[in-house]
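Incident log, structure service

09:12 report received: a user says their structure output differs between two submissions of the same chain.
09:20 pulled the input from the user's history:
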Amino acid sequence: MIKLTYINCLIFLFLVAGFISCKKDPDPVEPVPVPVTGSVILNFENKFGDSALVLNTGTYITASNDTFSVSKFDYYISNIRLIKDDLSVYAESESYHLLKAGSPGSLLLTLTGVPVGTYTGIEFMIGVDSLRNVSGAQTGALDPSNGMFWSWSTGYIMSKVEGSTVGGTELEFHIGGFKGVNKVLKTVSPSFNAATAIVSETAVPHINISADLAEWFKTPTNIDFTVTHSVSIPGANAKMLADNYADMFSVMGIEN
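09:34 re-ran on a clean worker, output below:
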């Protein structure tokens, strides 16, 4: 009886050992690939036609033959998207930038975490999207202390130009309005003109973009300063100017 029990135990142990040795090893866990990314620099240059825009001392002539100088030229750029040659899109997170002619450092934007590859287009909004106009107190570029905000009912000033004519007329164009028929938000896609921006881990392309103030005052509506020299609330005049400046951006070139 004792011998039989001993033998049964040995058989049981052999069976267990065999079962354990036959168990399939778990499949190895494949590591999640880390996306390879780089950076892109957007370099905005403020101009009036073919001339560089110089605050206070420069004088410029509009399509309506008004001569004036500029003391302030500020505008919001938001919701920046880069379009790849395979039509995939990089969208910058928390994409709100206030560009100010009087602050050259603000005209240079660095986009990080951009997937490597070849990019053939860009898209962005002139202004601040509707949601952020009603999102309560904000910080950074959207801080009301930047002087680009009216109230929670009228929202942000999307773009601003101030100056004076040679005759002494003060000019003040504060363009805003995020809802209704007079909404001024403009999403634009200035062409790369067959050029490409090539992003790698080490190469940082520079996309040079012109912001032409002359476009504010011509086509589709020529602005005559004797008739319209101040816009400071949302409405039809603000939309008229926004329809004009929707064409103010162009890509001058790309340095890879």
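09:41 both user submissions now match this output. Likely a transient worker issue. Closing.
09:42 reviewer note: The longest strand covers residues 67-84. The radius of gyration is 30 Å.
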